[in-house]
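Hey, can you fold this one?
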Amino acid sequence: MNSSFALSAKLSELDEKINQLTQKIVEIEDKNAKIQGKKTSLRISKIEDILKESGGSQSFKQLQSDLGLSPSQFTYLLRRLDTRYIEVKRCPGSQRGEKMLILK
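Sure. Predicted structure:
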C-alpha cells in the first residue's frame, strides 16, 4: 500500500515538473518569436524575392546595395531572417570575407 502511494506521489511530482518545463519552453519560444515591424517584414520579403529572381543566391554587398541599406541596417536584417529557409555561406574563390545568402 505504501509503495503504491509513494509511486503515485512520485508520478504526480514528475507530472508537475513536466508542466513547469513545458511552460518555460513556451515562454522561451515566445521571446524568440521577435515581433517585426512593417519595414523589417517588407525588407525580408524583398530579400526573398531578390534571391528567387537571382537563382537562389546573392552576395551581401549586392543585396545591401539593391535594398539601399547601411551596413548596420543590413546586419540587423540578417539577424531576423529565418534560418530554416535562408543560409549564409562564404563565397568560394572570392575576396576575403565575402559572404552570400542562399535559399535552401
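The first strand starts at residue 57 and ends at 59. Let me know if you want another pass with a different chain boundary.
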